[in-house]
Amino acid sequence: MIKHFIDINSLSKKEIFEIIDLAIMFKKAKKDEAIPQILKGKSLAMIFELPSSRTRVSFENAMTLLGGHALYLKPGEIHLGSREILEDTSKVLSRLCDGIFMRAWEHNSIIELSNHATVPVFNGLSDYNHPTQALADVMTIIENIDKDIKDIDLTFIGDRTNVCNSLLNISMKLGMGFKQIGPKKYHMKKEVIEEAVKANPKYKKSILITDNMKYIKGTDIIYTDLWWWIDQEVEKEIRKNAFMDKYQVNIEKLNKTKNPNIKFMHCLPANREMEVTSEVLDGENSLAFMQTENRLYIQMALLSHYMYQQKQLSSDETIKKHKEDIYDQLKRMTKI
Ligand code: CP
User: Fold this and answer.
1) What total number of domains does the chain contain?
2) pLDDT tens per residue across span 227-242
């Protein structure tokens, strides 16, 4: 049975920590330039319906570092969407590649892709979630906050983005306190909260969704994300008015936490001087660029874990036999 990586909710707490532990090993191995070529000869087809900097570069580099390679496939430049339906693209890529990545407008597209795939599917962001981001974020938290994860409180300030959803999911899995502070209109959807709670009901009490900034006090992490996404540009002025200034993360907000060790996090890209000031983003409390770096190691852990399961380890004898057969045939064909 093929395992896909689509949602944090499908992982156990143990699996989350195992993936993060593996990512930390890859981080150390990279520093020593000693990464095992686990995915030698393997390929990952990457479908991007939306633009990406961090996710694209980290997945592509992860494949290269593991000995494989990635193919950047954009609808409009492949047949998907105009001459070929997703089901057929999924079947085709499953025959040609060893894994399929998709960044999709609609979460259902990733589900449909996985329903027809015979190789592992990786979710690289949808309108519902961004699970690879959440794993890199928790890895960054573990590296930088010297507390048990169950004693950490994360406050997400802003819009109910896909990143916000995945952070709630991972908080519920690990028992981390989770708050969303923002205007009521942009609070997380009831069904998303219910789904996260269903995955681990015992942590239900550690969620707070509010518009009141006073709940920032005592938190360990302030996290924020863009106030508008690519398809929300038309709502730019409405959204800006709803969030500014009350929900902008600036030095005053960090001070309001009364936590001298407060950390700031952002998945990036950031709209500087909107949801966060440059002073905070570039400041000593910021983990934002470390989060980006850790995306690489989390992708390496995910790719090697999910694709390694598919890998058929051949014996030296089998490799020798194929090599002889192929070279013999080539010699016959070129009449050497
Ligand atoms: N955080 C993140 O997913 O960034 P990209 O959109 O650049 O991939």
Assistant:
1) 2
2) 999 999 999 999 999 9
